[in-house]
């Protein structure tokens, strides 16, 4: 910072436009596969089964042993 | 859970701190109206997974004959970072994760005495967004949310001193 008065900071504004593109998918109850931290695993399709496994984009495999469906 | 807000643009707006880092928040913006700060309802947090390239250079040249000095600063940075996005409303909320690809350029804007140095944000994207949405008070199950966010390069404006 060169020769700058503190009051000048408040006069500078940076603006960025934001575009959000999200898709919402309804999944069967309790069948949305989640990893250990509880995050829904990408691409996991609702499956009418009590036992299935999926692998997400990061190569993490999760196995759902039971469901409430 | 995904809602449409018609007539408003979503923007990140902020000002540089004392070290030149831009601290920005989400706003809803409409021409002729005061921007609405929605950072209480929609915000991002770092998830401590980040890779960053950074360079900064300053050159000072003094000329004793003319008793003048020039000072030049240049810098660039870019990186990837895992972030958590949170949205909350009266109908529930969304908890998302995504990877933000960002870039910044060190810039000096304005003229003395209103000259400011800052890391100006470039265009950015948040990809691989995935998470869930739901209403804890509802009997309905959570829904799966996927997608991406695009952010344009920052436009820097400096108001004249009063």
Attribute tags:
heterodimer, A: 69 residues, mainly beta, two-stranded antiparallel ribbon, 3 strands, elongated, disordered N terminus, disordered C terminus, B: 162 residues, 6-stranded antiparallel beta sheet, 3-stranded antiparallel beta sheet, 10 strands, 0% helix
- Following the backbone from N to C, one meets helices and strands of chain A in this order, namely EEE
Give the oligomeric state of the chains in this entry, treating copies of one chain as homo and distinct chains as hetero. Answer: heterodimer
Strand content of chain A: 25-35%
Give the helix/strand class of chain A: mainly beta
Low-confidence residue ranges of chain B? none
Radius of gyration of chain A: 22 Å
Give a short account of the largest sheet of chain A: 2 strands, antiparallel
Put simply, the count of helices of chain A is 0
Tell me, what's the shape of chain A?
elongated
Question: What can you see in these coordinates?
Answer:
- The complex is a heterodimer of chains A (69) and B (162).
- Chain A has 69 residues and is mainly β.
- Chain A has a domain at 28-69.
- Chain A has strands spanning 12-26, 52-55, 61-64.
- A two-stranded antiparallel ribbon of chain A has the order 2-3.
- The radius of gyration of chain A is 22 Å and the shape is elongated.
- Chain A starts with 11 loop residues before the first strand and ends in a 5-residue tail after the last strand.
- Mean pLDDT of chain A is 61; it is low at 1-10, 47-53 and 63-69.
- With 162 residues, chain B is mostly beta strands.
- Chain B has a domain at 43-151.
- In chain B, strands 4, 5, 6, 7, 8 and 9 form a six-stranded antiparallel sheet that branches.
- Chain B is elongated and about 80 Å long.
- The mean pLDDT of chain B is 88.
- At the A-B interface, strand 1 of A face strand 1, strand 2, strand 6, strand 7 and strand 8 of B.
């Amino acid at each position: 910072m060169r020769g700058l008065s503190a009051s000048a900071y408040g006069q500078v504004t940076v603006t960025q436009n934001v575009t959000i593109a999200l898709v919402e998918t309804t999944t069967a109850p309790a069948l949305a596969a989640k990893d250990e931290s509880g995050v829904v695993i990408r691409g996991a399709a609702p499956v009418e089964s009590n036992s299935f496994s999926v692998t997400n984009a990061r190569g993490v495999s999760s196995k759902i042993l039971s469901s409430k469906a | 859970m995904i809602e449409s807000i018609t007539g408003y643009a979503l923007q990140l707006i902020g000002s540089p701190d004392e070290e030149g880092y831009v601290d920005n928040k989400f706003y809803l913006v409409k021409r002729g109206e005061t921007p609405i700060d929605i950072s209480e309802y929609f915000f991002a947090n770092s998830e401590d997974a980040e890779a960053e390239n950074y360079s900064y250079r300053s050159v000072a040249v003094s000329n004793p004959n003319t008793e003048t000095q020039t000072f030049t600063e240049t810098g660039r940075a870019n990186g990837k970072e895992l972030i958590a996005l949170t949205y909350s409303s009266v109908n529930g909320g969304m908890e998302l994760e995504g990877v933000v690809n960002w870039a910044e350029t060190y810039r000096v804007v304005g003229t003395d005495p209103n000259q400011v140095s800052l890391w100006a944000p470039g265009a950015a994207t948040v990809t691989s967004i995935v998470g869930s949405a739901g209403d804890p008070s509802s009997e309905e199950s959570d829904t799966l949310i996927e997608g991406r966010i695009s952010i344009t390069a920052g436009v820097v404006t400096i108001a004249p001193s009063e």
